[in-house]
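#lab-general

N.A. 3:47 PM
ok so I finally got the sequence cleaned up, no stray characters, all 531 residues accounted for. can someone with queue access submit it? mine expired

B.Y. 3:52 PM
send it over

N.A. 3:53 PM
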Amino acid sequence: MKHNEKKEQHLSLFLEVCSQNEELRLPLHTSIVMFLLSYCECKSFKVFMVYTSSCSDAFRSQLPVPVGVSWVQLEDLPQLVRSCRLPAAVDESGRLCRAGLAVVLRHIIIKTTEEDPSRKDVLELLGFKKTCLKACAEVSKWTRLCEIGIPSAVEEHLLNPTNQVNRLPPSILTLEQRLAEPVKVHNDDKIRRQKLQEQRLRENEEKQICEASLGPSSQTSDGLELRAALAKLSVDSAPAAATRGSSEIRKVKTTALPPLEHVFAEGLYFTLTDVVLLPCIHQYLCSLQSHAARTLHQLPRLLRWYSRVREVPGVLKAAKDCGMILTVPQVPTSSLQETSGPDSPVSLLQQEEDEETTPQLAFVGGPRPTMTKLKENGIEAIFTLHPCPSWTLPWDSLPKAINPTEGKMSNIRSTRKMQQLNNLVAMVSKLASPGCTVVDFCSGTGHVGIVLAHTLPDCQIILIENKEESLVRAQRRSTELGLKNISFFQANLDYFTGLFHIGQKVPGDSYTQGAHDSLPFCRPNCRPAPT
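B.Y. 4:20 PM
back already:
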C-alpha cells in the first residue's frame, strides 16, 4: 500500500516490524507504544506498521497487532519519516515529525487528554509537573536508562537468552538498585510523618498484645506507600480529610523520619516510566523463567515492582490486547538459599561505575582559550577577510516575523542575533544551490532556519529541536509567513538519519560571544552555488 503524503489529513504513527530467524516480531519500542495506545484507549492516530518487501501476508497475520492497523512498506514511507528512526509520529500537515520513544509516548498522552479531558489517569502518567521522561537521553541518565539502556539490554538478551544467563545486564541491575533507594516526592515530609505515626501505633498494638499474652498478631498491614499509590489510581477514591498529626510527631526532625519505599519505578505513583519498562521487564522475566530461573532471586525488588504494576487498573487488559499475559514468575526455592557470588548486583554495579568513571576536565569557552589550545598543538590560525564583507540581509524589507527584534530579547542580544544571521545566511547562500537540503540543528524557535527558508526558496530547510515548545513556536511562525519549503523534527540528534547537503548549528547563549561564533558545514555532494 502506497502511503500518500498529500492526502494525509490525520495524525499518523509509524511503528517498526523486524525479522529474526526468518520470522517477524515486534521490537520492544513498538511493543511499548502499542501497550500505551491500548492502555490510554487512544484513537487519535492512524497506526502504520512498517515492514520490508520480504514480509509476507502470512507472517504479518501472526503478529499481535490490533484490528485497524495499516501496513506500509519501508520504501513507501513519506520522506519525512524515512529521515528518522522509528517510532515516529507525523502531524496533520505532514511537516512536523516527532521521533524517538520518549517523545512519541509523551505526544500520545497529550493527544489522548486533549481528545478526552476526563482521562485524568492518563495525564497523571506524566508525573508531577508533567516532566516524566521529558529530559532527553543526552542529558538525563534516567531517561537514557529507560529509553535506551534497558530496552537495548533486553533485546540483546532475547537474541541469545542462553548466553551468560547467570550474568544480569548492568542496566537491569541499575534499575534493581534504583528501586532500593529512598523515594523523594513532592510533599514527602507529610507522608513520612504519617508513616512514622502508623509505625508507632502498630508498635503500641503489638506491645499490648504481647503483654496480654495473646501471642504475636497475625494481621498484616499494607505499606503506607502502596496504599497511597493505589488510592491515587482508584477512580472512585475520595480525597482524605485534612488531619493534623500529633504534636509528638510534628516535633520529629526530618532527618529522623522513616524513608519512603518504592512502589513504582519513579516512586509512589504509576507513571510513563512504568509503561516503558513493563514490556521490557515482562519479556526479560519470562526469558529468565524459561532459561535461568535460579537467577530470579537476584531481582527481588524488580519482581515486587512487576507484581504491583499488574494491580494497576487497566494494565492487565491493555497487556492482553498486545499479546502479553502478565504472570508473576516463580522463584525456585533452592535458589533462595544460594549465596551471592561475584556477580551480585552491588559488585557488578560498582565495577561498571569504576569502569565508566573518567576525569572530566572543565570546559573553558571563548576565542582566546581556543586559540591557545590550537597554538599548543602546533596549529596556527590564519585570519582572512570576511567572505561577504558588504553582504547583509535586507532587514527593513523582510517580514516582521523574521526580524529578531520582534522576539522576546534585549536590544543588544537582538543586534548580535542579526549579525549572526547575516554571517550564517551569507555562508549558507554561498554553499547552497537549488535543490539542496539544509539542516538547522538544535534550531530552537527557528531564528536561523526560518530566515534560510525565506531567503532560499529553492532549497529544503529542516529544523531539528528536542524542545517541543520551541519547535511548535517555530512551526507557527513559518505558517504565518506562508513558507512551504520547511519541515520540522522534534527528536534527539541520534534519531535523525536523513541525508542533507548543508548543516549548521548555532551555539547556546552561554557560548555566544559575538557574531562570528558559528559556521555551517557542507557535505561533499553539495555543489557550491554559482557566483
